[in-house]
Design goal:
- The protein has five helices and eight strands; from the N terminus they run βαββββαβαβαβα.
- By secondary structure, the chain is of the alpha/beta class.
- It has one domain: Rossmann fold (3-Layer(aba) Sandwich), CATH 3.40.50.850.
- A six-stranded parallel sheet has the order 3-2-1-6-7-8, with helices on both faces. Strands 4-5 form a two-stranded antiparallel sheet.
């Protein structure tokens, strides 16, 4: 008997440095936590796979030529937001560990030396729901890679916030994601 396909959840970079008070704080970045926790509980209750990505930069990465130092490995700023629900059977995808790369996409990272795509295929995930930080960088990179790998991809609109170096960067990112086939959804629609 063939195992059926299941949905997966990818929570992107909800780390202290990206939340208010952090070194690269995103305005209202902490407001993604309540909707993400609702979706996480729903996925956990259904025994569907859940992944949390995190930046884990070395202190001397070239990435910091573009950005203020943030999410440096083994520092408090790299920790997940204290109220973020992380069930015990979740997988932590660590990315941005090289001195040379930006590590925007969780598909570049690994858990237990295994790539995210490998986990998704092993769990027979065919739909990937994505939320987190930041809409216009790592979330967008995750959605683009998921689509390129042919996963049906959903962006949880109320569970994302953007950096918005320019005022409409997040809106532009959402349009770009739609253009590659990402479906827009909300926490309420998922829970229904």
């Amino acid at each position: 008997m063939t195992r059926k396909y299941v949905p997966g959840l990818l929570v992107v970079d909800v780390q202290k440095d990206f939340c208010p008070g952090g070194s690269l704080a995103i305005k209202n970045g902490d407001l993604v936590v309540p909707p993400l926790n609702k979706v996480t509980r729903f996925f956990d209750k259904n025994n569907w796979p859940i992944f949390f990505s995190r930046d884990w930069h070395p202190p001397d990465t070239e990435h910091f030529k573009k950005w203020p130092p943030h999410c440096i490995e083994n520092t408090p700023g790299a920790e997940f937001h204290s109220e973020l629900l992380i069930p015990g059977r979740s997988y932590i995808i660590t990315k941005g560990t090289s001195k040379k790369d930006d590590g925007y996409s969780p598909f570049e990272g690994m858990a237990y030396k295994v790539k995210l795509e490998t986990f998704l295929r092993a769990f027979r995930v065919n739909q990937l729901f994505i939320g987190g930080l930041a809409t216009d960088y790592c979330v967008k990179a995750a959605a683009f890679d998921a689509r390129a790998l042919d996963f049906r991809t959903y962006l949880i609109l109320d569970a994302c916030r953007g950096v918005n170096l320019n005022p409409f960067d997040s809106n532009k990112a959402i349009v770009e994601m739609k253009d590659v086939g990402v479906v827009m959804t909300t926490t309420d629609e998922i829970l229904r």
